[in-house]
Batch of 4 targets.
Target 1
Amino acid sequence: MVGVLTVALLIGISSTAPSGSTATQTATVSAAGLPYFGLLPAVAYDANRRQVVLFNNRGETWLWAKNRWTQAHPTASPSGRIGAAAAWDPLMGAVLLVGGQSYAEETVLNDTWTWNGSTWREIGPRTSAPPGGFMLAMTYDADLEAMVLVASDIPFGTPIRLWTWDGAAWHQRNAAGGPVSPVAVVAFDPGTETVLAVAARCSASYCVSETWRWNGAGWQASRPAHEPGFGFSSMTLVHDPVSGRLVLLTITPTTAGPAPTETWTWNGQDWSWRQTIGRENAVAVTAEGLHGMVVAFEDVARDFKTQRIDSWEWTGDSWQPTSAGSASP
């Protein structure tokens, strides 16, 4: 059975025409019309062109706009990978993709790429780039005007590494006094003008969530009254422009079957449980924008012959189903 995959993204709904080049000239509808999500895909929202960009472990680039998936065929592309970090960089006007692990060779990657709507371009020196791997979380800090990347290590409990991107190169920052590995997700919280991070404190048998803030100079533990379940790579954290809160998708492990995907919101001080959708596996995604809505996708295929992707929109308080697509090759 194909596992369920849920991703949440900030989708711009501005009524003005998108700026920059579009990908329609380089995109074609696949035979099935739906993408292969694969394992730990990199997903972000291109705010200029109003489209979701998905890059999977096959090295394919897929675009979602106006309730339709198309496959792009860029002239240059990163190699297929799992666990790469991806987020929208408003200063560059491009989706930034960083690192990951080679799916074919199982080697770590520390390259940096941008998506301009039609093709990928490698940028920045690899010699000063963050370490490769698939335990990465990234978001754009609007107060700092820089991309912030947190790299976790194994074994758990080891110090994290913190990097910022200035549009041309990566710079390592002091991460002392902050959370330890693993950090699953990060997102910029406009209400507090800080980067919120969900990390884990792990024992020999389980992990519990810890919520932290980074203000550009140092870390502070939030210690909310409620903490969501910690889902490792099965977590998504994005800002909801409708409610002004952060929306978190996570799973709570269970021995009674597939783990449900839970929705939590952050009001700047505490987490609140909202709703359960799907069955398992949320993917960490970050995206930026000023206006829009949060959308979730779920790969609900039951075998490798039939594809089906359901989608929901977040109303600011609950999920509402929007459409379902299915096709057979």
Target 2
Amino acid sequence: MHSRLLQHTTRWLFCLCLLALESTAAWAAAPALVTILQGDATLVRQTNRYALAEGVALADGDIVETAADAFMQIEFDDGSIVGITEKGRLLLKPQITAPKTTSAPPSFYLLEGWIKLAAAPKAPAELDFLTPAFEVVSPGATIVARVRPKAYELFVESGTARLFAHSSASGLKGNDFVSQAANADKPTIGANLGGEFLQKLPRQFRDQLPARAALFTGRIVAPRPIGPIDYADVSAWLHAEPGIRLALSKQWRPRAADRAFRAEVATNVAAHMEWDRVLNPKKYLPKPIPPRPKPAATARASTPNAAQNAAPATPIPSSQSTQSNPNNPSPSPTPEHPASSAN
């Protein structure tokens, strides 16, 4: 009896150890982790939405968004820290269908909102940061940026970075301030921090972003499911640049089975024509190959060739011809042709 109880207890403890090891391994394999959350933030993963919380592990391809008054901090497995706020929309490790300026794989894509990035100085690779208007590559800089429709501002707090915008590259250093208005052809780079930018700078960005990932070691927090995505939930991404939205449309195609989602997509299909193939698949089926015409048989002549098959005419003797034709008189006798005498 005691041996059986000991045996069951040992098995139970062994299973608990395996679960703990799996949880720790899953956390260690997570490319990013939510370490600070003030206010409401959501996660879009595949075709579903979730409510975020501190300790939630994020995966490649996840979209995180903050409410207007919320702040969220994400820590990556290489030690880099990112803070987003004020309706920030961030896509982790985007699978872009068309490469931008550099060949480096992007770490994340900010569609809009405020962001503060503290790149790890000893990361194995440079951090590549994309937006609709520019791309930043940095080996270990701290950068604050605000991305708006057709405009942006960027401040290099420390370190160095390379800015790629409108097919031009610029080297940036600490205290450089970059801005581009909606009607400007190219950005301006200076050493003076914009007054409006400084005035609207989120308070969480005025200090250094703290590292807190160690507080969640061995602990996984599951996000709370909200439900399938609606068109309004991902409308901003469906209207993004083609290189971003094409990859996202592939994972959201199953939602076309929902009548409301399908109707919204059809109404706005001109803004994302890649969905026309989903809505009207028959239109994109390969056209059937028309049958080849049979070669015409060589027509044979229905009547024999008159020139080749005509019978040769029988010559008429001159005597018969003369006798048969009374109008043709007999030839006069000549030395060559003497007249026959009567016997």
Target 3
Amino acid sequence: MSERNSDMGGWNSLRWDRWLVAGVVLLLLGAVAVPQAFVKRSEPQGQPIVDIPATRPSRAGEYRGITLQLHASDPKVPFEKFVEEIARTGANTICLSVAAYQENASSSSLFIESRKAPTRERTVQLIQLARERGLRVVVMPIVLLENARGGEWRGLIVPPDPNRWWEDYENYILHYARIAQEGGAEVLMVGSELVQLEKETTRWRALIGKARKAFAGKLSYSANWDHYEGIEWWRDLDLVGMTVYYDLVGDKEPSLDVLLAAWRPIRKDVLAWRSKINMPILFTEVGWPSQEGCAKAPWNYVASRKADVNTQDLCFQAFFRTWAGGPGVAGVLIWEWRNQEYQTGGPEDVSYIPIGKPAMATIQRYFQAPDAVEQAKGSPAPDAPAQEPAVALPDPGKGQG
């Protein structure tokens, strides 16, 4: 047996040497083509290179931040660079969005896909890097459907075996609760837009109680813009979270006046509801894809391939004029920053990312505006027309990416 093993070892060694030589030859033959392909991917022709002039993080008490989706495990994806970019915008907060996956809305199990998430160690390091750059950190776990059927999304999840699903979901949230605690995050979302499951009050309260034991910071939940009133467990949390994907135009053409008028009744209703629960509101997803129709269906980022950066900017202007510095507003998280190097924004881009678009300057003016406490006297009443900014928005000069 020893001689046979010795012979096989020699054969394997020879075969390995041959493969090694062949590999070197292939590398030499591809030495020119591969770098060219890489350059084309990381720096697409005709797209502006991201260059955010350094701006100090906002000193405002509210959360003024941008979301970065951490949906890749490849160490070559430069999440650290993207954290640095967000810190340069003048934001004082970064939201790190992570994901678990399930087959479809009728699945009873979910899992963290190792190929679509940074390692635990890297996620902790990203939180720590953000803190070193003066950013407060929000960790927001969401659920994505791998093979959605028709118009399915996480708001329609109804598992046939609830016990199994909730066990997986609890493990998922507590996993990131421990990561958030280790890294030093300030806020943890215990969920996002799980509309059909929000009536499970007993299960949510049990999960929140366990999350508090694992995480010492503030807890919140990101409710869908049209489904925040029926949640009975808001007071178990520290912050009310909600998205803002409202139809702001109906059949009208988007203009600043139309958008401001649309926000008035929405603002009145939200603040009237907030006064009943007496909790601060964190707007968890504030974003409009820079495409035609974004003011009507901001949640639908694949509705059009026709760029419209001006309407995107008007939507941000109207939002900040309506809500910035308003009573009970804990802060705003912009959706979203780029999470791949080839996402360089610009006037022809139709995604949410504000890089290289007029919206970037509007966002930076908001980031650098005075604290809401200092501007309280200038805030409009809940039922007042939102015609002027609730806070003064200084011009950031060359702050646009």
Target 4
Amino acid sequence: MFASSTATVAGVLGAVLVVLVLVVLARSVRLVQQGTVGVVKRLGRFHRMCEPGPHVIVPFIDAMQKVDVREEPRVGDMQSVITKDNVSVMVNATIFTQVIDVRLALFEVSDFHVAVDQLARTALRAVFGGMTLDEALSERQRINAELQTHMASATEKWGVRLNRIEIVDIVPPQNILNAMALQKEADQQKRAAILQSEGQQQAAVNTAQGDKQASILRAEGAKQAAILAAEADKQSAILRAEGFKEAQIRSGEGQAGYVSALYAAIHQGNPTPEVLAVLQLDALEKIASSDNTKLVVPVETAGLLGAAQALRSVLAAVPEAAGESSS
């Protein structure tokens, strides 16, 4: 009986010892995942840091706390902020943070997640309080930059780096939205009226330019026609002048030939003064018989002409008398 009791106690003690060993082993070996860092505290104080991989610690003396060192996006909830022109809007933002100093993140602030969230809330109120509603709706990049400037210096003390902040939503009150819709509609109508008036103005300008161009082309055509007509008249006058000149030259040449031949014939015939007088009388008769010639004869010359005519009659009668005597 005593032996069986002893065996039972020994079995229980052995089982307890095995469980104790397993517990010790379980508390002694820690596995740190990639993207996290383990912080070992010995008796409540910082002891060392453990990189990703398996690590052995002293059970019941050491404790390990794991910290995620990857970039972490934190989406804030909607909160009410008041703009510079006293308009209450609902805003939320996404904050991208990353732990860069694990020791500071654990021992400089009680909970850096809560601290970053509360800091973002106060920064949102401060930034939107210095802007009007129109600026808040149209300048998100400026809001993001100012939020990062407000929060960066504080988060660095906690070993947390603020990578960027993105405003997700800005929701004005419903009455402001209605007013903005009416303003947008009025702006669209104004723009349409402006575009229509500009189109009419451009059409009028184009029409005027077309009329001007047509007038210019018509004037240039009339000018060119006048120039061509003037050149044609000039060429015609030149041709007529050249023809008249050529006719005068030919007429002069003919007169010169006639005079030369007449002069030669007169000299060859050895004319008497009476014959010359008769020739002069013939020339004078031809001049007087022309339609376009006016001949003024002095009174003293009238007797001379009569004498010349009588002489001519005598000369004409001489051959006749000579013929009768010969017969």
